User: What shape does this take?
Amino acid sequence: MTEQRGRMLPQTNRIVPEMVHYEVSLLSEDDLHLFNEGTHLRLYEKLGAHILERDGVVGTQFAVWAPNANQVSVMGDFNKWHKSSHPLMPRGQSGIWEGFLPGLEAGTLYKYHIVSNFKGYSVDKADPMAFRCQPPPNTASVVSSLTYDWKDSAWMTDRASRHALQSPIAIYEIHLGSWLRVPEDGHRWLTYRELAPRLADHVISMGFTHVEFLPVMEHPFSGSWGYQVTGYFAPTSRFGKPQDFMYLVDYLHQCGIGVILDWVPSHFPTDEHGLGFFDGTHLYEHADYRKGFHPDWKSFIFNYGRNEVRSFLLSSALFWLDKYHIDGLRVDAVASMLYLDYSRENGEWIPNKYGGNENLEAIDFLRKFNEQVYEHYPDVQTMAEESTSWPMVSRPTYVGGLGFGLKWDMGWMHDTLLYITKESVHRKFHHGELTFRMIYAFHENFVLPLSHDEVVHGKGSLLSKMPGDDWQKLANLRLLLGYMYGQPGKKLLFMGGEFGQWQEWNHDESLEWHLTQYERHLQLMKWTTDLNRLYRSEPALHELDNDPAGFEWIDCTDADNSVLTLLRKARTSKDLVLVLQNFTPVPRLAYSVGVPRPGVWTEVLNSDAAEYGGSGVGNLGGIEASATPFHGRPFSLVVTLPPLSAVFFKSRLEVE
Assistant: This one.
C-alpha cells in the first residue's frame, strides 16, 4: 500500500487525507469471477462505500464498476467536491475502480466523477450501490453503515408458516408518502419511525396479515410513486435513514405483520446522476433504442443479457431480504420484461434469435431471480405483476415456469371492476365477466388485487366509481369486497379502500382520514375488518386458495337475478363455507340454493347487516337444510338474499 498522508486542496485551505490503494482488495478473484459470470449475489458486500478498518485506520473503502472509464475519482463534501483530487485505481481488467479513504465517516456526502474513454465525456454519478442517498432533489450518495439491533427473531423463526400457500394472506398496499400526513406541520409526511406504531395499529385493527409498500428504493421524482428507481440498495431518505426503515420493518414484524416490497427490475430513469450512460457507454441498459428504452415510461431498460447487470439486480433483490428482513418482493411490470414488442409498433422492436417476441434474456433472468430467492430465503414469497396470459408464471422453473410464488390476477381485477361499475339493471347482460375467471383461476397461484393503479389517473376511488346513490355506492363496495374475499386467491387492497375514500388517490396528499368520523365509513371499516377476520379464521376460505379442490360452483348461471352461489372447502377441516352474492338492489326472497349436506347452515357474515350500514335484511342467524334436492345437491336451503349483498354461511360437520 502507499504511505498514508494528507494534502491541501487548491483554493480550499483544507487538508484532507489522500486515497490509499491496497495491494490486497476486498474483492477476491472469486468475487470478480462471479461478478463477470452474472452469479454474484452479494455485491453490496463488496462494491459501494464500506466503513471499515484497514491497518488500524478506520475509513471508507470505495469500489465502483465503470469498465469504460479512463479516470474515476471520489468527490464530496470532504474535499469541497473537487473532481480529481481523490482518484480510484482500476482493479486489473475487471472494470472495477477502488480505493480507501482514511478517516471518512458515516454521513459523508459523495459522488463518483467519471471521465470516459469515449470522446472525453465526463459525468458525476451517484453510487449505484449506495446504502443511503441525499433527500431529493439533491442527488449525492451518503456513506452509511447498516448496523441495527433486530428484535424480530420470533417472527423470522415462524414466518415460513405465514407465507405458505395454504395460509391466509391479506395484503394492505400503501404509499408511504400519502398514507398519513401531519396537517399541523405543513402537511409533511411521517418519518419511518413515526409511521411504525400508527401503521401497525391500523393494520392490526383491520385484520390484514401483510403490508406492501410501493417502492421504497430511492427515486428522484415523487410523482413516479417510487417506480423510477435510482438507488437499488437504498431506502428513500424522504422518511429517514436506513436504520429508521429497519425500525419500521422490525416494529411491524414484532406486531405479527409481514412486509412486502415492490421491486422494479424492469426499467430505470434517465436522470444524469443515475445508472444510465454510466461510464460514457450504455453500461446497464441496452445500447439499441429498440431494446434499451421504454416508450411508455421514457426510461431505460436493463440489459438482462449482460452478466454484470444480472449480478447487480440479483444482489439488489437479496439485499432487501438479507439486510432489511423483507418477507416478499412483488416484481413490477413483468409483462414489459417478457415481451420485446411490449408497447411497441412494428419496426420498433427486434425479434429474438428464433424470430419471436419473447425476451429470452429477461425470461432467463426472472427464472434465476426466483431460483436464488427461494434457495436462500425459502420462507418468503415472490409475486409477479404480469398482465398477460403468459403461461406458468407461478410454477417452478424445473417444469418450465418462471418460478414466482404468486401472480397478480389482473384479468380478475379488470373483469370485476368492469362488471361492478355498471348499473345493476345492466349486469345480467354481463354475467360472464364474473364467471369467466374460474376457467383459469387455478392455472396460477393468484393474488386478487384492488391496487393503487385502479384509483388514479381519472379512474376515481373504488367508492366513487360504484353506481347508484350514496347508499348503493357503499353497498356495492361492500359487495365488491365480499366478492373478493369469497373468491379463491390471496387478497390485496390499496389504502383508502378499507374505509371508502371518496377522492381518487393523490400521492401528494394524505388519505381522507377525516371520513372515519362518519358512521357509514366506520361501518365499511368494520365490514373490511370482519372479512379479514373470517378469511383468517376459516380454513375453507384460505387453505385451498390456489387448488381447485377448494372451490365448487353451486350455481353460476343465474344471470337473470344476477346471483352467484359457490362453495369453499378446506384441506384440514370438514367445515364448508357457502358464499351467496346478489348483485342487484332487489331482495331475493325464498331463494333456493342446493347444498351438499344437512343440518344448520349458520349465517356468519352478511354485508347488508345494519352494523355495516345495510338495510338489515338477513336470515335470523341461520337456516336448516331440507332434504329437497336442488342444483344437483341432495339438500337445499331457502334463503333471503339481501339487496346488493354478499352473505357467508358456514356448515360444521356433525360428529356422531
Q: What stands out?
A: DSSP finds twelve helices and 32 strands in the chain. Residues 223 and 507 are 7 Å apart (CA to CA).
